[in-house]
Each structure stands twice: as C-alpha cells, then as structure tokens.
Amino acid sequence: MFILRDITQPLQAQFSHSELGKERSSLFIYTLLSIIIPFTSSITSNCYRCLTTLFGIDLNQKRFYTFMASSTLPWQRVWQTIWGLIPSPETDGRLLLALDDTINPKSGTHIFACDTVFDHAAKTNQSQYPWAQNIVAVGLLKRIKGRWGCLFMDFRFYIAQKTLTANSKNARIKDQPVPFQSKLEQACHMLIGISQHFPNTPVLAVMDSWFGNYSVWQPVRKCLGLRFHILSRLRSNNVLYNQLVESKENKRGRPAKYGKRIGSTAEIAKQFVSLAKNYTVELYGKTRQVSAYDQVVVLKTLKCSVRVVWVYRKTQWIALFTTDLTLSVNQIIEFYGARWKIESGFKELKQDIGSQSAQCRKAAAVINHLNFCLMASTLAWIYADKLKADPERRHKVKGRTSFAFSDVRHIIAEAALNEDFVRLCPKPSNSPINSIVAVLLRMVA
C-alpha cells in the first residue's frame, strides 16, 4: 500500500494544484489502477465500470469519457516522472533499451493510425495484411526479483507515407495531418529522448536485425557520443572485414579504409565452428550451456569495428554483434536473449491488459488509451521491483519458478482496494467503496 502511494504521488504532482487539477490527478491515478486490476479488458467502458463498481467512485459517464479523450493530459511530464521512479535502472553499469515494433489489430474503419499493415509473423490461418495500428516502442530491460522484465518507456504510432499522401481521416489529429516519420526516425527520437534523461549513463540499445543498421546507429551516436552502443543480429549475407593494419609502405591511390575481406557471416560460421568454446549463460530463465565463437571485425554497413559472436545450436547458428567491444561473450548472449521480453511485453499489453480490445476511434482517445495501458504495465513492474519479497506464483507451471505479470497485478489490486489507500489517495468523490468488491475479487481469482 505504501509502495503504491510512493509511486502514485509523484504522478499526481504533475497536474495543476487547482480544484480541477486535483480532480484530474485523482481520476488519472484511479484510471491507471483500473487498467492494472485484473477486472476485465481495459476498454474504456470497462474502466468506467471498474471505477464505479470496485472503487465506488460517483462519476458521471460523460465526464469520464471526456477525460479519456482529453488532449491536455501532461503525458510527457508524467512519463519522465515514471523514468525517475525506476529503482536502479542500470544493468552492469548501462541502460539496456529494447527497441521493436508491433501491430495492434482492430475492427472498424475510422480508427486513428489504422491501416492495412504487413504482418511478417502471420500464421498460415491469418491474414498477412491485417487492419491494424503499427506501434514502435522502446522498453527498459531490467532484472526484477531474479527475472527479466521490460518496462515500456515510450512509443510512436507509425503511419505510412501512402496513407498520409491519400489524406486519410485515420492520419489526422484535430483535422491536421500527422507529419511523416519513418520507423527508424521514430526510433532515433525515442532513444535520444530517453538517453538525455539519464545524461551520465551509457546506453546499449538491443534490437533485431531490421533496426540494427546505420540509420539508427549514426544519428543517435552523433547526438549522444561514445556512451551509445547497439546490440543486434547479423544477416547471413553481411560481409565482414579485418581491422585495418597501418602499413609503412607508400602505395599509390586512395588510403584503404578496411582490412582484408574475411567473408560473409555464413561463410565464417562454417569456417570457425571447430574453434567454438562452451559458455555458461543465464538464458530464458535457465542456466544453459552454449557453444560460441567471437571475433572483432569491421562492418562496412556501420563503418566501425564490432564484436561478433556466433552462437551454435544443434543444426543452426545465429550471429550477434555489438559496437561495445568491452562486452563479454556471456553478456552479449544474455542481453540479446533478454530482448525477447519486449515481445512478451507486447503480449501482456494486447492480451492481458487488453489494449487490443479498445474501441476508441478519435486520435486523442486512442493516444490516451495506449499511454494508459503502457504506463500501467510499467507501473506494475516498478511495483514488483520495490517489493521486499518475491511475489508468489499463483498458477504453478512445470519448469517455471519465477512470478508472472498477472501475479503482480493481483498484489496491486489488493493494495489499491484497501481502505487505507483511499485515505492516502483520495478519490474524485467521497462515495463509499462498494461492498461487492470482495466478491468480485474472489470471482477474478
């Protein structure tokens, strides 16, 4: 309960001190809690039911829907406050920022940021071009009570150039077209904004091979300098070169920029498989033995030296690379393995919290709702990190001993529905808490 108070009070401070500001700050906190509590999916109507039924808040429905569609909520200040609430955000002296994109399928034509999007992960019984929102997000990878978690820190809606050119109603905010930005440009702006909030901390951006290229590396590196590095995956046809060795001989022509060509990623993987060594790493929640070979080479695509690690499995291999040459092989493998937590975060966001079921249409309502869902997810992880003891897993699964995201939500629900919390965080009205709360919680459990 006191943990919840310590998390929510700094957020309330970002609103004005007028009577209206105090009411909005209180409604803001209880709306976040209504999304975290495993009552039902987080569509706006269900949040309203949760506020009136579970918290017993006397709230006019029109007033709540107006609040959810407000264009004046101080999201930037609140997000920066959230960043400051994360306990010890560094991992091995650096920020681990996971970068990826996802699609949020919707039904209905006039929904902000919706378009026909290619889904590269579509299954055989699914459409490869669903009607969906395309979201680019950045999350902080952090060990929480012995397991990795992804704390979302920022996001952008990606709207294609063709949609803007067609002057689609789904790409307008207050009847003004949204300025076009590519996914790579959006990624750069988010990485720079988050890194500037932690001005003295080295940053390692962990991303898949689509984002791990010069278009992200060069702009962010130019802005942040030597404290920014990336960790990504190489394609099988990437060509690698030896580091340039200065020669005292005077040769005709332009000076060489790269050393001798070694070969492609696939060629080197076959050539040096016999030199691979065994490493013990913490990967996907277990201690595993992996076989890997590493070498420092030069990538023409990034125009710099990188450390490449080939990880061999029974019949396959993958090649990871990083611009941070101080990282060990164990760290490279473990950090890239932790990148999968942003994928788990997307699943929690869309299915557990239920942002995929949201029925908002207008731009302000869509943006606010996704901000609420992402922030609720991050607050749940911050709460788990501040707990003294590890949360107990409610549903036992063979081979898994660590807690689940849903376990933290139930703990927060108990704290938020406690009468003492209402005294610490007054509700927008003085209505008593509905007595049906305990019954509903037992039904949810």
In short:
By secondary structure, this protein is of the alpha+beta class.
**Integer count of domains:** 2
Give the overall shape: globular
Question: How much of the polypeptide forms β-strand, as a percent range?
Answer: 15-25%
What portion of residues is helical?
Answer: 25-40%
Radius of gyration from CA coordinates: 24 Å
Total number of helical segments?
15
Tally of DSSP β-strands: 14
| Sheet/helix structural class | alpha+beta
InterPro entries: IS701-like_DDE_dom, RNaseH-like_sf
Protein name: Transposase
Domain Transposase IS701-like DDE: 56-273
Characterization of the model:
The protein is an alpha+beta fold. The protein folds into two domains: 2-208 and 342-444, no CATH class; 214-246 and 256-338, no CATH class. It contains 15 helices and 14 strands. The protein has helices at residues 2-12, 19-36, 44-53, 61-68, 75-85, 161-165, 183-197, 214-224, 265-271, 329-338, 340-353, 363-386, 405-416, 419-424, 437-444, and strands at 95-105, 114-116, 131-144, 147-158, 172-173, 176-177, 203-207, 228-233, 239-241, 261-264, 277-283, 286-299, 304-312, 317-322. Strands 1, 2, 3, 4, 7, 8, 9, 10, 11, 12, 13 and 14 form a twelve-stranded mixed beta sheet that branches. The protein has a two-stranded antiparallel sheet with strand order 5-6. Strand 3 (131-144) and strand 4 form a beta hairpin. Helix 5 (75-85) runs parallel beside helix 12, helix 7 (183-197) packs parallel to helix 8 and helix 12 (363-386) crosses helix 13 (405-416). The protein is globular and about 85 Å long.
